[in-house]
Amino acid sequence: MGLTIAGILERPHFSESEVLAGNNGLNRLIKWVHIMEVTEIGQLLNGYELILTTGVGWKENQDLSFSFLQQLIENNASGLCIELGTYTNIIPEKMIKYAEENNFPLIIFKKQVRFVDITHDVNTLLIDVQYKMMSDLERFSNKLNQLLLSTDAFTGIIRLLHNYLNLQVAYFPVEGEAQFVPRIDQSRRETMVKAFQETPLTESKQSIAYKPIEALGHKFADLVVFLNSEGFTEFESLVLDRAATALAQDLLRELYVTEKKKYNERGWVQNWLNGEYHTEAIEQHLSSLAPNFKPNGCVVCFCKSDLLNDETHSTYYSMIIRSICEQQGFFMLSFVEPSAISIILVNKRGADDWKTRVGRIIAKIDETEMAPSQAKSRIDIGIGKWCSILSRLNESYQTAQEAFYMKEKIGTESHLFYEDLHVYRLMPSLSKTGKLEDLISEYLGPVLAYDAKHNGEMLTTLEVLLDANGSKKETAERLFIVRQTLYHRIEKLKELIGDDFMRSEKRLAIELAIYGQKYLKL
């Protein structure tokens, strides 16, 4: 569908016209007819215009006429019609040759014609064509909507697209096998798959038209149409776009239904998080959910957000995260609690880079709009220890919660991996038994008492000195004090906590006490 140069030439006003060059371009589409008598086009054209001119702008100046033709071709005009007689009598051979080389229709009128009648006739026809195109597109959209209500919308949409375009249609998922409508033999199938995979797709590609199938901000597939020699019209492009949108809607519905089913499996997931299953039972259950992968370790991410108070939002949230996780090589299960969700990431790839990939997931979650109808809400995440044995997932679950609560206590904006807590891992258990306070009192009590009484900086001096491995020069520089002042402080520290405070065993205990003091102050 669409009006071409060839179609225009059949109109009564073109009955005595002659095509001098560009016969191979007569299938060019026309979107408007425009009268132009200037020689500098600039930004006057949008593309796909059929230009009418008497040549008054260049008359017999061959350089100007050739420049005018070059500008039309550069601006993607559809063709040029020249009236001979009044201002110019001949078309230079140079113009004819250049138009032929570029398959650009060059048409002449040997008698005077009324441009006003041509523009009225053709533009009216274009409006009629546009109206018919929109009506046909509306009918196509209605059929898509009907298919979206059916049980097998995917197959119906692909077939409907093929029937409308009468071209080979293919669906290339990011993961999985390509599907072709109509079906083709294995040899041709392999050729098309190879062409699709090895050739970068661009908007200007002549043999393929395509639209990505996207949902929740992620690409799931490409809907591809293999073109014939006639090219791709505007109507066909719009049909492809509507079909791609319908497939995305069907995919989103399928994802939501799948997520609801997984949400209803929360009892099994909760038992796994609590450590109630053996590895063999876990593998059997996972194989029933996703038969085509072998688990290679797992980790739990504990998340909190106000969005999770609503079941609809928590399902939508899980659906988005699942999409992100799949792209990073993880199969995801979730357990939703009030205002919280525990995300189980079961690894489908090698385990060496698991932390890097989880980091990418978290970064993507941070930049993704999670609530479909709300302002962006903060999502806080703690990541547990990596478990190579599936039955020990409860350890990752517990450590993920510890990392999350430590994140809240520390007040950091970044998401915490349990393995990055280091010495802070010991603090909760030491604090619960009262041993942390005892440790601080024994090793730092005199220093803290001195600072409180004299408004001193002995604790800060001690911390920097230990961090600088006893280097007096570096310590003085970091404290912005002269060396002599530092020497006096070190002597005072020796009085308070002993001459041997730099001895390795005692130093380690003092450093642990300093971390404990920071933890209690948080």
TrEMBL record:
Residues 459-514 form the PucR C-terminal helix-turn-helix domain. Residues 8-125 form the Purine catabolism PurC-like domain. It holds the Pfam family HTH_30. Coiled coil: none annotated. InterPro entries: CdaR-like_regulators, PucR_C-HTH_dom, PucR_C-HTH_sf, PucR_dom. This is Purine catabolism regulator. It comes from Scopulibacillus darangshiensis. The lineage of its organism: Bacteria, Bacillati, Bacillota, Bacilli, Bacillales.
